[in-house]
Amino acid sequence: MENLFENQDIIDVNIEDSIKSSYLDYSMSVIIGRALPDAKDGLKPVHRRILYAMHDLSMSSRSPYKKSARIVGDVIGKYHPHGDSSVYDALVRMAQDFSMRAPLVDGQGNFGSIDGDNAAAMRYTEARMTRVSEDILRDIDKDTVNFVPNYDDTLKEPDVLPTRVPTLLLNGSEGIAVGMATKIPPHNVDELLEAVLHVIDNPEATADELMEFIQGPDFPTGGTIFGRRGIIDAYNTGRGRVKIRAKHHIETKGKKEVIVLDELPYQVNKSRLIEQIATLAKDKHIEGISEVRDESDREGIRVVIELKKDAMSEIVLNNLYKSTPMETTFGIILLAVHNKEPKVFTLPELLKVFLSHRKTVIIRRTIFDLEKAKARAHILEGLKIAVDNIDEVVRIIRASSTDTEAKEKLQDRFELSTIQSQAILDMRLGRLTGLQRDKLEAEYQELLTLIAELEAILKSEEKLNEIIREELTEIKEKYSEPRRTEIEDSYDEIDIEDLIPNEPMVVTITHNGYVKRVPIKSYEKQRRGGKGKVAVTTHDDDFIERFFVTNTHDTLMFVTNMGQLYWLKVYRIPEGSRTAKGKAVVNLINLREDEKIMEIIPTTDFDESKSLAFFTRNGIVKRTSLVEFSNIRSNGVRAIVLDDADEIVTAKITNPDSQYLMIFTSLGQCIRFDIEKTREQGRSTRGVRGIKFKHDSDFVVDANVVDNIEQELLTVSEKGIGKRTEVSEYRETNRAGSGVISMKLHQKTGNVVGAVLVDESQDLMALTSIGKMIRVDMQTIRKAGRNTSGVIIVNVDAKDKVVSIAKCPKEEDEELNIENADTMDGIDLNEFNLSDNSSSENVEDTNTLEIDNNDDKGNE
Q1: What integer pLDDT is reported at residue 819 of this predicted model?
Q2: Which residue in 123, 359, 371, 849 has the fewest CB atoms around it within 10 Å?
Q3: 616 falls within a domain
Q4: CA distance 533 to 524
Q5: What is the number of domains present in the chain?
Q6: Same domain, 767 and 849
């Protein structure tokens, strides 16, 4: 058999090296020739070829539409040897106003929708360029960019387009190459051009400086970006993550709230979103939604989410943000090709690349115009000579037998160039009139002026920059649009503590989970027995459940009924007026389903000498070092292990001076025992028994940490009855005992709602179930024995009751007025025993009514 390889050179190649080399060539081909945009014009090769093919077909924004199939055919046949579907898909996206911030193709027909509908076949749709595309291609015929051979070397195509628009950042770009990917968000054209103009005058401008002009991405579908940290990271490093939420407003339909979505996050499929919301509501994963429907039309998006009667819109929204694409994350990667190499850019670098490209285009355009002007001036100089010597020129031409002979004689006689002599031969006789001779002279002078201007541009950087400014200003005026995407600051990303004054605040939380903070000065002090001021406007089925006073710089520890602990800075709670509704707590901390906040504890530090004491409804108590709660995750930490059917009632901070723990029950029991009876335990422990109930229906309502027995306790019942009693009257017992009587209870008092330690430098604030808050000086409240009922502190209506009490600082700008209270304290309160038929008017008149003063030591 004949040796097929005879007389041929055989080269041994390592297959591993061959595969590496081949794959590297392939990857670079994908990176440069398909997947990534160029940093100069912001276009991928397929987009660039589509626009250039439309330019070849003279498809301007004013020309008639042409079939998309014709455009695709030209692109494939001349420049882009790939499948027609990939080219048509790219053309379709360039025409979608929900995909591009500034569409590059003006489409006629079905080009898809935000619901994910596909575009019609390319034989049905028509297209032409938009005005933006015209400005991207402007001056391409003036040798402003390099042209390279097409795939079969039969034609030339532009290597890059001479764009006047910063297309890369204006429309953004997405692409996956080999080993790398790009994801550049769209931006607002006004902001971009303002930033470029700033870079012209300040070449060393930083990303932070440019963010004074560019707020952040501006998506064609609008929405709201939450937080600036991701934007700052992206502009400074080239990589960042931003959260985008649907924009909505709330409407009312009878007694129900209706959530209406006006804008969706970028690239979210509307029909799929609606389907997902409906499925989650049907499967009870999201409670409170009764109906979801799409009312969108040509005027814009309108997705209606009707809520059930008892549902709160903010809680439903929070669940929707967590569970659906109503909140999405856009991962920014500013990757683009520059000088045939992929690179991750910062914002200043991208703007400088665009600016440098514009300078190159203007210089090349100026050189082109200059050469053209000089060539025309050269011809005009020859024509002027011919006009000035027309008789001799005519004689020479008539005496010549051929055009070549005439040209040579004219060149020799008048020292003309070949071009000038040819122009003289081509000159019409009409140019010999006096008017035409004047026009020649005027045109020549204009050309000399133009040549001088063009040469000045090439010699002056300032003139070059001035042209760029004029062009960018023209573009800005032509395409100016308001920003569509709003940007809201996130407290999690901004350190604003130093910008907020450290002021006392009243923080309130309602039964349905609405929280707010109000400056303490909003509440005026009243005398005991006053009716109080409305502290918050609530729904019929909602009421203020607890409140406390703290400072804006303090940390709040949220202890829930399930034994979880979260924390939050006070200034992160939205401030509102006295009658404001507040913000849902679920939007501030990540509560679980059915989890309820039982105590909110302010602290200025997490000193290891302090501990946190937890008290449960079933009488369990536990102490844990405060330092164990200094670092809390967003979903909180386990603070105590609870028994079945048990829950946290309250929690208190203890310090080295604390001596006793006191626990109060609803049916009037109280126990005081040494704090050392409860040793410190870790977070994931159960604790020990603190009190033993005498009645199965009894439960813990409050607890306190006592420093010494000389302190006084103020106990308050549901009907607004209260009293001050010295701690020493509550005898110390062992832990886990039944304790002693804390208040004499009956129908006129109601059950015990709470007990606080008396501090005469502070006022008492009592809250009722219908939202009234009253502020009372503690000095006006009479001291009484342990086994008594007390006096009326706040008058409540028949359907109202006290639900919570707390202490707050005295107002420094108001003198204490207790004249009437002193007078009342001088009255023998035993004279005012209330009979069953006593009216509420009599109660208001006395204001210091004592219900019962019988000591029943046997009940101990």
Answers
A1: 32
A2: 123
A3: yes
A4: 9
A5: 3
A6: yes
Whether 464 and 526 share a structural domain: no
Q: What share of the chain is helix, strand, coil (3-state, %, to 5)?
A: 35, 25, 40
Both 601 and 630 in one domain: the answer is: yes
Q: Judge if 511 and 409 occupy the same domain.
A: no
What gap in Å lies between CA 649 and CA 109, rounded to an integer?
Answer: 65
**Cβ–Cβ under 8 Å, residues 45 and 336:** no
- Asked which of 436, 452, 479 is the last residue of a domain, the reply is 479
Q: Which residues of 45-82 are buried (b: 16+ CB within 10 A; e: fewer)?
A: bbbbbbbbbbbeeebbeeeeebebbbbbebbbebbbee
Query: Do the Cβ atoms of 566 and 557 come closer than 8 Å?
Result: yes
Backbone phi and psi for residue 714, each to the nearest 5 degrees, phi listed first: -105, 115
Residue with tokens 């009514």: 849
Q: How confident is the prediction for the chain on average, in pLDDT?
A: 84
Residue 377 buriedness (CB in 10 A; 0-12 / 13-18 / 19+): middle
Q: To which H or E segment does residue 157 belong?
A: strand 156-158
pLDDT tens digits, residue range 795-830?
Answer: 888 888 888 887 776 654 333 332 333 322 332 333
Q: Residues in the chain, how many?
A: 860
The pLDDT value given to residue 255:
82
Of the candidates 738, 755, 735, the residue with the CA atom closest to the CA atom of residue 690: 735
> When comparing pLDDT for 7 and 759, which is higher?
759
Largest CA distance in the chain: 150
| Domain assignment of residue 727, given as a range | 497-809+818-859
Q: In whole angstroms, give the CA distance from residue 278 to residue 265.
A: 18
d(CA 469, CA 477): 12
Q: What is the mean pLDDT of residues 224-234?
A: 93
Q: Active-site residues: which are they?
A: 124
Residue 370 lies in a domain: yes
Straight-line distance from the first to the last Cα atom of the chain, in angstroms, rounded to the nearest whole number: 119
State the SS3 of 192-234.
Answer: HHHHHHHHHHCCCCCHHHHCCCCCCCCCCCCCEEECCHHHHHH
Q: Quick one: pLDDT at residue 585? A: 79
Position 851 scores a pLDDT of 42
The DSSP result for 339-365, as a single string, is: TTEEEE--HHHHHHHHHHHHHHHHHHH
